Amino acid sequence: MNLPQRLLAASSFALLLALPQGALGDELLEYGEYLSSQCSTCHRLDAFEGGIPPLGHLPKDYFIIAMREYKSGRRDNPAMVSVANALTDEEITALATYYAAQRQQ
Ligand code: HEC
Predict the structure, then answer these.
(1) How far apart are CA 22 and CA 27, in angstroms?
(2) How far apart are CA 96 and CA 32, in angstroms?
(3) 57 falls in which pLDDT band (50, 70, 90)?
(4) Is 13 a residue whose pLDDT tops 70?
(5) How far lies 100's CA from each of 21, 78, 103, in Å?
(6) How far is the CA of 43 from the centre of ligand 1 (A)?
(7) Which residue's CA is the nearest one to ligand 1's atom 17?
(8) 55 lines ligand 1 (CB under 6 A)
(9) Mean pLDDT over residues 37-48, rounded?
(10) Pairing with 5, which of 23, 50, 62, 81 sits 20 to 30 Å away (CA)?
């Protein structure tokens, strides 16, 4: 490969990395918002409701770990165990992305 070709290859690779990442972030956020409709029957974003914790303040890592703990039974709240068991890892990541993004609002 000569130099111009190599530069071209490098820059289109960079473009490839930059573009889908943004698009993927938006998609995750929208998917998470869509999925969150099944959570908002119990959870509010910003306040405790009937002893149920709000989700809008949760950091993404914390959220994902909490959901894994419901799945594994380490956290044993029956409602949340059945909610978590019905979700795939991808759905949990989307929900975590959505709820973490509610922190600024
Ligand atoms: C039937 C009511 C109900 C529904 C529906 C529900 N939750 Fe929960 N959730 C709870 C309760 C009650 C707790 C507190 C349980 C505990 O003490 O472990 C909780 C706790 C959590 C926690 C831990 C919060 C923390 O601060 O540690 C997360 C995360 C969570 N829920 C996510 C979700 C998501 C995501 C959905 C929708 C996919 C959902 N929940 C749907 C009742 C519900």
Answers:
(1) 9
(2) 7
(3) confident
(4) no
(5) 17, 24, 6
(6) 7
(7) 77
(8) yes
(9) 95
(10) 23
39 lines ligand 1 (CB under 6 A): yes
Q: Ligand 1 pocket test: which of 39, 62, 63, 98 has the largest number of ligand atoms within 8 Å of its C-beta? A: 39
Distance of CA 5 to the CA centre of its chain: 38
Q: Look at residue 21 and tell me whether its pLDDT is greater than 80.
A: no
Token pair belonging to 16? 């490839």
Query: Predicted confidence band at 18 (pLDDT cuts at 50, 70, 90)?
Result: low
Q: What is the reported pLDDT for 89?
A: 97
Q: Which domains does the chain have, with CATH numbers?
A: 3-103 (1.10.760.10)
What single letter denotes the amino acid at residue 29?
L
